[in-house]
UniProtKB/TrEMBL annotation:
<keyword id="KW-0067">ATP-binding</keyword>
<dbReference type="InterPro" id="IPR013079">
    <property type="entry name" value="6Phosfructo_kin"/>
</dbReference>
<dbReference type="Pfam" id="PF01591">
    <property type="entry name" value="6PF2K"/>
</dbReference>
<dbReference type="GO" id="GO:0003873">
    <property type="term" value="F:6-phosphofructo-2-kinase activity"/>
</dbReference>
<dbReference type="GO" id="GO:0006003">
    <property type="term" value="P:fructose 2,6-bisphosphate metabolic process"/>
</dbReference>
<feature type="domain" description="6-phosphofructo-2-kinase">
    <location>
        <begin position="3"/>
        <end position="223"/>
    </location>
</feature>
<dbReference type="InterPro" id="IPR003094">
    <property type="entry name" value="6Pfruct_kin"/>
</dbReference>
<protein>
    <recommendedName>
        <fullName>6-phosphofructo-2-kinase domain-containing protein</fullName>
    </recommendedName>
</protein>
<dbReference type="InterPro" id="IPR027417">
    <property type="entry name" value="P-loop_NTPase"/>
</dbReference>
<dbReference type="GO" id="GO:0005524">
    <property type="term" value="F:ATP binding"/>
</dbReference>
<dbReference type="GO" id="GO:0006000">
    <property type="term" value="P:fructose metabolic process"/>
</dbReference>
<dbReference type="GO" id="GO:0005829">
    <property type="term" value="C:cytosol"/>
</dbReference>
<keyword id="KW-0547">Nucleotide-binding</keyword>
<dbReference type="GO" id="GO:0004331">
    <property type="term" value="F:fructose-2,6-bisphosphate 2-phosphatase activity"/>
</dbReference>
Length: 316
């Protein structure tokens, strides 16, 4: 189909610690699950490779450290290294996309309008048929920022060998360096999705086709929260003939053939299951400071054995 033949670059935008890499990985997993060839190109990996190479050639020591001063826009030496890394990542991305891929994700801050214009022009020069979508992650929720910071410090190679407090200070200073030059997306000629606090609010512009029908709804559901999900099969059941006139429910709802309904043991199981899940939900909500009275959402098949389970203990 034409949708399968189309090529798209998703360009991430946002300050450090705003969940861009998290979103990029989730997009990659989701689109691959949908059967779409997708790959993330993380500019940070290219930056570390470029800076490590530069460190052996006697350039500014800041280039070797990848510490906060590496991201100082007044340091011309490190600015050139960052631009080199970004160019290499984009080149590899386009090589992959034009030969075998369908959707590529450019994971970087891309914090300035000039940088985004350069990315757009470079892609257009390679192939004007490639679609370009910018995804900006905006976050001002302090709790969420702290969670993002801790995750970044724990997982990023930039902070290896650093203590937690030192790494935190370094990350905060890096963010300040970016904040001094950050420009949010305001050009409505571009296709973009803006996520606020990891999808608590979503704004989009010029989103059509596959992006509107699949990616946008997925991004609206992305979050970093944790919650229990319980999967359970129906309890012990017996087969009942749907043509049995004594069971008008089965006859009218399911027609001919056989269908399973809960036997006595299955009913007892469903009642005990309801008690167990309600207790677990209340305990989890209490431990996480949640006072919402809605304890659960039950999702089930509509076969009688599942409906019996749902109604026997869950509605009380």
């Amino acid at each position: 189909s034409e949708a399968r033949k189309s090529k798209t670059v998703l360009v991430m935008v946002g300050l450090p610690g705003r969940g861009k890499s998290f979103i990029s990985r989730r997009i990659e997993l989701f689109l691959r699950w949908c059967g779409i060839s997708t790959k993330v190109f993380n500019v940070g990996r290219y930056r570390r490779a470029v800076s490590n190479k530069a460190a052996t050639s006697g350039v500014d020591p800041a280039a070797a450290s990848n510490r906060a001063n590496f991201f100082d826009s007044s340091n011309e030496a490190t600015v050139k290294l960052r631009e080199e890394a970004a160019a290499l990542a984009l080149e590899d991305l386009l090589d992959w996309l034009t030969t075998e891929g369908q959707i590529a994700v450019l994971d970087a801050t891309n914090s300035r309008e000039k940088r985004r214009e350069l990315i757009w022009q470079t892609i257009q020069n390679r192939s004007p048929d490639i679609n370009i979508l910018f995804i900006e992650s905006v976050c001002d929720d302090q709790f969420m920022l702290e969670e993002n910071f801790r995750s970044k410090i724990k997982n990023s190679p930039d902070f290896e060998g650093m203590g937690a407090e030192e790494a935190y200070r370094d990350l905060v200073q890096r963010i300040r360096n970016y904040e001094a030059q950050y420009q949010t997306i305001t050009d409505d000629t571009l296709s973009y999705i803006r996520l606020f606090n990891l999808s608590s609010k979503v704004a989009c512009n010029k989103i059509y086709g596959r992006m509107a029908s699949s990616l946008l709804p997925y991004l609206m559901a992305v979050n970093i929260g944790t919650r229990p999900i319980y999967l359970v099969r129906a309890g012990a059941s017996i087969d009942a003939t749907r043509k049995d006139t004594a069971n008008t429910f089965l006859t009218s709802r399911w027609g001919s053939g056989k269908v399973a309904v809960l036997e006595e043991e299955g009913v007892i199981f469903s009642e005990q299951l309801a008690i167990w899940v309600k207790d677990r939900c209340l305990r989890w909500m209490r431990d996480n400071g949640i006072s919402c009275p809605a304890l659960r959402q039950v999702m089930s098949k509509r076969l009688p054995s599942f409906i019996d389970k749902e109604s026997s203990g869950w509605q009380r």
